Automatic annotation (TrEMBL):
Keywords assigned: Oxidoreductase
Lineage start: Bacteria, Pseudomonadati, Pseudomonadota, Gammaproteobacteria, Oceanospirillales
UniProt keyword Amino-acid biosynthesis present: no
CDD domains recorded: ALDH_F5_SSADH_GabD
GO molecular function: succinate-semialdehyde dehydrogenase (NAD+) activity
Name the record gives this protein: Succinate-semialdehyde dehydrogenase [NADP+] (Ssdh)
Family that this chain belongs to: Belongs to the aldehyde dehydrogenase family.
Amino acid sequence: MSAELQDSTLLCDQSLIDGVWCDARSGLAFDVKNPASSEVLAQVPDMGAVDARTAVEAAAAAFKDWRRRSARERMAILRRWHQQIIDNADDLALLLTLEQGKPLAEARAEVLSGANFVDWFAAEAMRVMGDILPPADNSRREWSTRHPIGVVAAITPWNFPSSMVTRKVAPALAAGCTVVLKPAEDTPLSALALAVLAERAGVPAGVFNVVTASHGAEVGGELTSNPQVRKLSFTGSTAVGKLLMAQCAATVKKVSLELGGNAPFLVFEDADLDEAVRGAIAIKFYNTGQTCICANRIMVHERVYDAFLERLARAVGALTLGEGTGDGVTQGPLINPAAFAKVSSLVEDAVSSGATVVTGGGGDAGLGGTFYPLTVLGDVTPAMKVFNTEIFGPVAPVYRFSDEDEAIRLANDTPYGLAAYAYTRDLGRIFRLNEQLEYGMVGVNTSRFVSETVPFGGVKESGIGREGSVYGIDEFLETRYLCLAGL
């Protein structure tokens, strides 16, 4: 690698099944590349259905013991994992930047955010409780109890290759479940490093397994069809989520799906424009626009449209595009050339349909084939492809609206419903927006609100279930009813 880890053992080139670091049964492997330079960082096992089945069997066997461990013991192991992540945060951040591209400061923030999820759910392990129910008559007593659901299949995306792992694995382990993780093929190294640290923390063999694969269909097919897997937790595109959900139907698995987004960012005429611009920059260009909660459609009241657009373009000009390990870099590359081509196509369609390039625009940014210029588009309309497409790139399309009703109608005019943002000082409007916006999360006068303490998730085609907060562990538990009669 072009940069060195303090602990070289965190760079793994094998998968983890039943406590054994192993290659694919087939002997196949695939390259993991730096998206900024195309440097090969490592080769990891290209596993298939047989490997995934072996991992599931290991997880099922380990579940028998892990579920019987006391909540206090699981909490202690998770807290040791949390400390391992904190102690190795610099190496984990460097690995993340090298395989995913985001700037080092942003990568380190992600690692620490992921550690917070482990810490949070370590404590939640002690709070899994049931209820004493009012009896139907005095001859019996009734209870509800909560139990770990069993083997969990977790499939994580490339855009947050560290925190998305801990957001799924930590609550599953806290609940008493065991896990088979399939990380994204572009970014498996962060997941493997986290597994190393989980082992060091005392997570037993078979409780946390990692299966790497260059194409997820074969492994995913095994995880969704295997009857020993009782729960699927997936973060990724809506199209793949629908496919996995359909595959899980045959064995009626519990599913959690965190899917695509098309977030509106509403700026009303009474907004603090400087704060709105800061918020738009923070969330639109977060991870170079490659997040499901990015501001995808920036909608500005016509009275302040020109002023907002001018300030936004000036703020974008202050950002620095470059390789994530470079000094002062705030924006990294897109994940691969296909992502670059998609973003280019959306900008070209918008411009050909009448949008204006305020700053940036098409073409190579002069840094290589995955660096797209930071772009602001004006005069964008709902008729353009960019309105209904998750951009996943550093392009800020700015739309006009004339009143509150139009803003709400445009915001809801999408099958997605993950996150929405609004800038306004009108308290009545804030309550109306909360009641009428069809989104699982709404930020008012702020664009960065995600943490381990809040429920993350969407409605409509943006998914099912919640991650984080007191609700996050519920996804890995089932409720049972006990009736004791003859008293």
